Amino acid sequence: MTLFEKIANHEIPATILFEDDMIVAFRDINPQAPQHVVIIPRRAIASVNDVESDDAALLGMMFVVAKQIASDLGVAESGYRLIINCGPDAGQSVAHIHMHLLGGRTMAWPPG
Ligand code: AMP
C-alpha cells in the first residue's frame, strides 16, 4: 500500500481538506508555498505513465476538487499552480499519482 493510500485510509495522520469516495486532498507535510495541498485519487495509479482511458472521469474530478479547494483557501483569484510530477526527472517521490496545488505567493517560470 502506498503512503498516500494510508493517508486516504486515515492510517497515517494528515490534515485532510476534502475527501469523498474517489478523491482525497490533504496539506503537504513540507509546504513549498503558503498553501500547498496534495490531491489524490483513492485508486493507486502509480503515475501519469499508468493512466488509462477508464481513469478519465476520476482524473477530471481532481481538477474539480482543485478548483474548489483553491476557492476555499482564497487563492482562486490571486492564482495558483497545479503540478503533477511524473518520474525521476520531475522529482516524483511517491508512486501514487497526485496533483500539487500551490498558492499564496508569486511563482517563477520556468520551474526549477
Ligand atoms: P512528489 O515529489 O511530486 O512525489 O510529491 C510528494 C509530496 O508528498 C511531497 O511534496 C511531500 O512533501 C509530500 N508528502 C510526503 N509525505 C507526506 C505526508 N506524510 N503527509 C503529507 N504530505 C507528504
What does this structure look like?
This protein is an alpha+beta fold and 112 residues long. The protein is globular, with a radius of gyration of 13 Å. Helix content is 21%, strand content 22%. The longest helix has 17 residues, at 56-72. The chain is built from two helices and five strands, in the order αβββαββ. The structure holds adenosine monophosphate.
N/C terminus separation: 30 Å
User: What is the mean predicted local confidence, pLDDT?
Assistant: 98
The CATH homologous superfamily name equals HIT-like
Task: Tell me what portion of residues adopts beta-strand conformation.
Answer: 15-25%
Helix content: 10-25%
**SSE series:** HEEEHEE
Anisotropy-based shape: globular
Radius of gyration: 13 Å
Main pleated sheet = 5 strands, antiparallel
Task: State the total count of DSSP E strands.
Answer: 5
CATH class annotation = Alpha Beta
Q: State the oligomer.
A: single chain
The CATH architecture category equals: 2-Layer Sandwich
- Helix count equals 2
Within the CATH hierarchy, at the fold level, what is the topology? HIT family, subunit A
Number of domains: 1
Bound molecules: adenosine monophosphate
Low-confidence stretches: none
- Helix/strand-derived category reads alpha+beta
Instruction: Report strand order across the widest sheet.
Output: 1-2-3-5-4
Q: Tags for this entry?
A:
112 residues; HIT family, subunit A; five-stranded antiparallel beta sheet; 21% helix; binds adenosine monophosphate
How is this structure best summarized?
The chain has a 5-stranded antiparallel β-sheet, with helices on one face. It has helices spanning 3-8, 56-72, and strands at 16-19, 23-27, 35-41, 80-83, 99-103.
